[in-house]
Amino acid sequence: MESYHFIFDLAIVLLSTKLLGLVTKKFHMPQVVGALLAGLIFGPVCLNIIGETDFIKSTAEIGVIVLMFCAGMETDIKELKKSGKASFVIALLGVLVPLVFGYFVGVFFNRPDRIASDATNTIFLQNIFMGIILTATSVSITVETLKELGKLKTRSGNAILGAAIIDDILGIIALTIVTSMADSSVNVAVVLLKIVAFFIFAAVAGFIFYKFYKHWSESAERAMHRHAIIAFVFCLLMSYIAEHYFGVADITGAFIAGLIISSTQRSQYLASKFDVLSYLYLSPMFFASIGLSVVLPKMTASILLFTVVLVIVAILTKILGCGLGAKACGYKNYQCMRIGVGMISRGEVALIIASKGASVGLLGSNFLGPIVVVVVITTVITPILLKIVFKHDPNDHLTADKSFSHNYEEIEKLRN
């Protein structure tokens, strides 16, 4: 009967994420905060009722892929093109500022008389790697929050999406450079070529699929289930190819697949289908899994001080770096604040980077605990801060409709 325990886990996750989501909504916070708290409360941090099983990990991975696919479908491509240059500047400063400040935090604390490190690489590379961890951005938390608030299609929302995708690429490059210095088996040139090759592949494959899908789906009198299935298959293939063959994050492949689908007439119908799938099953599993993966370490006075400083630096450097980038590109002050806040969450991306660094001797075991705390706090605080900065909306006219009822009204129009 042990093999069926995943059904119990699933029931607890779905129930707890919804109930806590409603509780956080009562306190005027996004429901995604409740989903994150559910993972923390029922996971190893508190009650330890649910563990991070292979089933939960796999489901969570599909969940974030679908989430980014939906974000791609709901993105205004014209607005995204307008923010293309700005997104690059925002992402660049959003990487450089945390990198520099993270390095100096490492310089101050990574000493035998303060916090001893058992990492095998040089102190310089360890400190640089500390900064690289802070460059990470987990856009999935922001996407879900913006969808819930109905602000995904705003100018600020599009800038965040574009910057987050570029941030991932810059993060991969920075991580590759440092790990190649620590591990001779990693070739920087090969990684860079793979990234360029992926975007060439995505452009060619996307154009071919777009022509086929547009003709096939629009030749039908009404939208059908088969259109949604083929769109999902394309999303999964793009995600797999991006990660497996090119070393680019699978969510980047999913987002590009969503962008391609968004240009078709059936995009509203497809978005409504995937919204239901994500809302009922995949999104709760993904957000709960972040909390379930957290195991808090024992804290000494020095490590506790380091943790507090690291959390403050993690929050402020993203707001400062991305905000300055947005300001340099002509965004207004309130939009700069929104963009900076939207890039705060480190989520599972920082944990992946940290584990990679620890495996090649770039991160000592004493520093892993504070990284986990940074991930937890930035992940939980981002939706709360987003709700605050998006509360007043003076000039963003393009807003995404967040109601399911509107989606289903559109479906009925398409079917009739």
How would the blueprint of this fold be written?
Layout: H1 5-26, H2 31-42, H3 54-73, H4 77-82, H5 84-109, H6 123-135, H7 139-149, H8 155-182, H9 188-218, H10 225-246, H11 250-262, H12 267-292, H13 301-328, H14 333-342, H15 347-359, H16 365-389, H17 404-415
Helix pairs in contact: 1-2, 1-12, 2-12, 2-16, 3-7, 3-11, 3-12, 5-6, 5-8, 5-13, 6-8, 6-15, 7-16, 8-9, 8-14, 9-10, 9-11, 10-11, 12-17, 13-14, 13-16, 14-16, 15-16
Describe the protein in words.
With 416 residues, this protein is an all-alpha fold. The protein has a single domain (2-415), classed as Na+/H+ antiporter like fold, CATH 1.20.1530.20. 76% of the residues lie in helices and 0% in strands. The protein has helices spanning 5-26, 31-42, 54-73, 77-82, 84-109, 123-135, 139-149, 155-182, 188-218, 225-246, 250-262, 267-292, 301-328, 333-342, 347-359, 365-389, 404-415. Helix 1 crosses helix 12 (267-292), helix 3 (54-73) crosses helix 7 (139-149) and helix 15 (347-359) packs antiparallel against helix 16 (365-389). It is globular and about 75 Å long. 50% of the residues are buried. The chain crosses the membrane at residues 32-50, 86-108, 128-146, 158-182, 188-212, 224-242, 248-264, 276-296, 302-324, 336-355, 367-390. Keywords: Antiport, Ion transport, Membrane, Sodium, Sodium transport, Transmembrane, Transmembrane helix, Transport. It comes from Anaeromicropila populeti. Residues 16-391 form the Cation/H+ exchanger transmembrane domain. Pfam families: Na_H_Exchanger.
